[in-house]
Design brief:
Number of domains: 1
Largest sheet: 6 strands, mixed
Shape: globular
Order of helices and strands: HHEEHEEEE
Oligomer: single chain
Structural class: alpha+beta
CATH class: Alpha Beta
CATH topology: Nuclear Transport Factor 2, Chain: A
Length: 152
C-alpha cells in the first residue's frame, strides 16, 4: 500500500512539473523573440523612409489595420503602403521599447518615436507613442495592428 501512495505522489509531482514547464515555455520563447520583433519594427521604419514598398508590404499581415493620430478611420495594408508616396520620412528616433508576449504566436510592442518629414511640401514632425500587435506567421513576425498617439 505504501508503494502505491509513493507511486501516485511521484506521478502527481511529474505531472505538475511538466505542466509548469509547459506554462513557462511560451514566455521563454517570446522573451527570446523580443530582439527579433524589435528589429522588425525598426526595419519597417527604415523601409518606410527608403520608400521600400515591397519590404514594408512583406512586414504587414494580410489583415493589417492601423490608426494614425488625427486620422479619419482605420487604414489597411494597401493604405499603409500607399502612405509611402504621401509622406517623405526624413529622420526618426525610436526608443523605450517593450515587447510583451500575448502568447507563443503574438506580442504587444510599445515604444516612443520622434520623427520628421514632409507631406504635401510642408514640414511635419511628431513625438508619438506607438502600440503595435505583432503575430508570428510561420517563422516570421508581421505587424497586425499599429496605433499611433501624439504626445506633447
Amino acid at each position: 500500500m505504501k508503494m502505491i501512495v509513493i507511486a501516485i505522489a511521484f506521478f502527481l509531482w511529474l505531472t505538475t512539473a511538466a505542466m509548469a514547464q509547459e506554462v513557462q515555455h511560451p514566455a521563454v520563447k517570446s522573451a527570446s523573440s523580443a530582439p527579433a520583433v524589435e528589429a522588425k519594427v525598426r526595419k519597417v521604419w527604415e523601409d518606410f523612409k527608403n520608400k521600400n514598398k515591397a519590404g514594408l508590404g512583406a512586414a504587414l499581415a494580410d489583415g493589417f489595420r492601423e490608426m494614425e493620430e488625427g486620422g479619419s478611420g482605420f487604414g489597411d495594408k494597401r493604405a499603409e503602403i500607399a502612405m509611402v508616396d504621401d509622406f517623405e520620412l526624413t529622420s526618426y528616433v525610436l526608443r523605450d521599447f517593450t515587447v510583451k508576449s500575448l502568447g507563443a504566436q503574438s506580442a504587444l510592442v510599445t515604444y516612443s518615436a520622434h520623427y520628421e518629414g514632409k507631406s504635401g511640401g510642408q514640414m511635419a514632425k511628431s513625438d508619438s507613442i506607438f502600440g503595435e500587435v505583432w503575430v508570428r506567421e510561420g517563422s516570421d513576425w508581421k505587424a497586425l495592428y499599429i496605433q499611433e498617439t501624439a504626445v506633447k
